[in-house]
Amino acid sequence: IRDELYTSALVRSTDGGATWFEVTPPSTDRLRYEGLTRAGDALLVASPRGIILQPGEARPGAGVFRSDDGGQSWRSARMGLPRVSGGYAPVTALAGMDGGAVVNVQGHGMFLSTDLESWRALDVEASQLASDGHRVLALTEEDLLLILPDGRRVDLEAPGPVTAIGGGNGYWVVTVADQGLFVGDGTQWSRLFEGEPHALAVSGDNVWWATADGLGVVELTCH
User: Fold this and answer.
1) Phi, psi (5° rounding) for residue 178?
2) Could you tell me whether strands 180-184 and 172-176 are parallel, antiparallel, or unpaired per DSSP bridges?
3) N or C, which end of the chain has less CB nearby within 10 Å?
4) Closest by Cα among 143, 9, 138, 141 to 65
5) What is the pLDDT at residue 214?
């Protein structure tokens, strides 16, 4: 990150984080980048907005970029995403899966790509997206929505009012207001933690959460 208030950069490490070098797409150094995700063998990153030159200023983003070489080089992958004056509407969430990806675009809802080049509208707005590597889970105004690589959608029954979602190796983790942290396959849920976590992260078989008392982690060996 060059300047946390105004712009950002993509950086890559090949030695476990000991050293880093910049891999920002060319001619895009006046953009912010967020939402890095893996989609099969490719990487995707969203540029939700341009840099802020003055306080309160809103600038359009540049859609989605794709890398097929581990982040060494990038090219645009935004055909079909909504345009606004001067660029593209802000991408607020991004999640990849085998053979495709889903983005949510502010004011336009979710879009699905099955070729990581072009996008088609799903006509549903999502506040959060998560992936288990093979499918995408969306937190919508109504409930949880499972999106399959071919675009089919499956409504899932949540264990309560969901506030955050995460995806692991073939399972989902959700936080439920005033009830705690749950893990499941979308039809059956088990409580991992009772309380109200205010942050959630999933890495492989490890589920991390944060509360006012500190951090918690559990390794899921069976799910």
Assistant:
1) 65, 10
2) antiparallel
3) N
4) 9
5) 80
- Reported as half-sphere exposure (CB side, CA atoms, 13 A), residue 19 has a value of 3
Q: What is the rounded distance in angstroms from the CA atom of residue 110 to the CA atom of residue 124? A: 6
> pTM value?
0.82
Strand pairing class (136-140; 126-131)? antiparallel
Q: Which two tokens stand for residue 118?
A: 């072009």
Residue with tokens 């109504």: 142
Averaged pLDDT for residues 89-108: 89
The string of pLDDT tens digits covering residues 125-140 is 999 999 988 899 999 9
State how far the Cα of 132 lies from the Cα of 48, in Å rounded to an integer: 23
Question: What is the predicted pLDDT for the residue at 8?
Answer: 66
